[in-house]
Amino acid sequence: MSEIAATTVHEAYAFACMRCGYGWEQAYEIEHHVDGSHNPFIIYKADGEQVPSPLSRPTCTNCGGHVVRIMRAGRVSTVQQLLRHAQPTPSAAGNADPGEDGVVAATAASTGAERHWHLSDLLHPFHRK
Question: What residue segments make up the domains of the chain, in order of their start?
Answer without folding.
Answer: 4-126
